[in-house]
Amino acid sequence: MSLQERLKSAIRDIPDFPKPGILFKDITPVLKDMHLCNDLVNAMHRPFAHRKVDCVAGIESRGFLFGVMLAKKFNVPFVPIRKHGKLPYKTISYKYNLEYGSAIIEAHVDAIKPGDHVLIHDDLLATGGTAAAAAELVKMLDGHVAGFAFVVNLEFLNGKEPLKKHSDHIISLIDY
Ligand code: AMP
C-alpha cells in the first residue's frame, strides 16, 4: 500500500464533530502506528530536505504531534504556536477572522530569531486562515516562511490560496 492509502485507511471520519455539519478528520489512530508516523514525517521532510529550514512551527494542538517529530527529523528547534493566553512567557499575537467571529494565536517573542526560515506545520489545512495567521506571526518576528507542510488538505476549501503570498512551497500528503 502507498503512504497515501495507509493514511487514508488510518484517518477516521467523525461526522458532526465538534458541531453539526463538520466532518472531523481524526488523525489519532495514526499515532498508534509509529512506523506510519515515521513514514509520514519522512514524506513531509523530503520536499524540504534541500531547502533552508531553521525551525518548525506547529499550530495548537494537533500540529504539535507530528510537528515535534518533523523538527527532530530536521534536527532544528520546534516552535509552538498557541491559542491566546496559553503561552507563559512574553508573546506576540495575531488576530484573524473565522467563519463566525475571530481568533487570536500567539508565539513567544524569542521563539524565532530574525532571519530564521520557518516551516509551518499543522495536521490539517481547511480554509487556510490559521496557517496564514501563523505566517503573519513568523513575519512579525522578522522570520521567513520556508513553506507549509500538512498531513491532510480539504481541497474543496481552497486553503492553499491564502498561503501562496507567504510561500510557493505548500505540501499536503493527502487531499480530500
Ligand atoms: P483553517 O484555519 O480553516 O485552515 O482550519 C485549520 C485548523 O482547524 C487546523 O488546526 C485543523 O486541525 C482544524 N480543522 C478544521 N477543519 C477540520 C476537520 N474537518 N477535521 C479536523 N480538523 C479540522
Task: Please characterize this protein's 3D structure.
Helix content is 25%, strand content 33%. By secondary structure, the protein is of the alpha/beta class. The protein has one domain: Rossmann fold (3-Layer(aba) Sandwich). The protein has a 7-stranded mixed beta sheet with strand order 5-6-4-3-7-8-9, sandwiched between helices. The mean pLDDT is 97. Adenosine monophosphate is lined by residues 22-25, 59, 62, 122-131, 159. Residues 22-25, 59, 62, 122-131, 159 line the site of adenosine monophosphate.
Provide a brief overview of the structure.
By secondary structure, the protein is of the alpha/beta class. It is built from 4 helices and 9 strands. It has a single domain, classed as 3-Layer(aba) Sandwich (Rossmann fold).
**What is the string of helix and strand elements?**
HEEHEHEEEEHEE
What's the overall average pLDDT, rounded?
Answer: 97
Q: Compute the gyration radius: what is it?
A: 15 Å
Q: Within the CATH hierarchy, at the fold level, what is the topology?
A: Rossmann fold
Q: Could you say which small molecules are bound to this protein?
A: adenosine monophosphate
Assign the CATH class. Alpha Beta
Helix proportion: 25-40%
Main sheet, how many strands, which sense, barrel? 7 strands, mixed
Order of strands across the widest beta sheet? 5-6-4-3-7-8-9
Number of helices: 4
- In total, the number of strands is 9
Report the portion of residues in β strands.
25-35%
Q: Quickly give the structural class.
A: alpha/beta
Q: Based on CA inertia axes, which overall geometry fits?
A: globular
List the domain count as a whole number. 1
Distance between the termini: 18 Å
From the 3D coordinates, which CATH architecture would you assign? 3-Layer(aba) Sandwich
Low-confidence stretches are none
